[in-house]
Design goal:
By secondary structure, the protein is an all-alpha fold. The chain has one domain (5-108). The chain has four helices and no strands. It has helices spanning 5-13, 26-43, 74-88, 95-108. The radius of gyration is 13 Å and the shape is globular. The mean pLDDT is 84.
């Protein structure tokens, strides 16, 4: 399956039970996705194999853009999005849940 960034953001919303986009807007989810992809690029540039001469401009990605890395990394970026959303929401923050999703992200990348 070929993911779009919108699909990855929506995947990150599932653990948040955020179908109505009240806890995290699409724009915020896109920002978190870009940050997660930057971390993937900095820690694991090998995952962009075959793209070294033309690495994707992550800052220019939009919600409708194709996910620029192998689809196997999409769940990891979705976990990063969930962790960021969990850690920023002071009213419903559960530190252990945010930490768990960060650990899932790190373990998959």
């Amino acid at each position: 399956m070929s993911y779009t960034l919108q699909a990855v953001v929506d995947m990150g919303r599932i653990p948040l039970n955020d179908d109505d986009k009240a806890r995290m807007t699409d724009a915020m989810g896109l920002t978190f996705a870009k940050q997660g992809l930057q971390m993937v690029l900095s820690k694991r540039p090998d995952l962009f194999f075959g793209q070294y001469l033309a690495l994707p401009d992550i800052s220019a990605l939009a919600l409708g853009s194709s996910f620029p890395v192998d689809d196997i990394i999409a769940p990891a970026v979705a976990d990063y999005i969930t962790a960021r959303a969990e850690s920023r929401n002071d009213e419903s923050i559960i530190e252990q849940r945010a930490t768990m999703f960060y650990q899932l992200f790190k373990g998959q990348v």
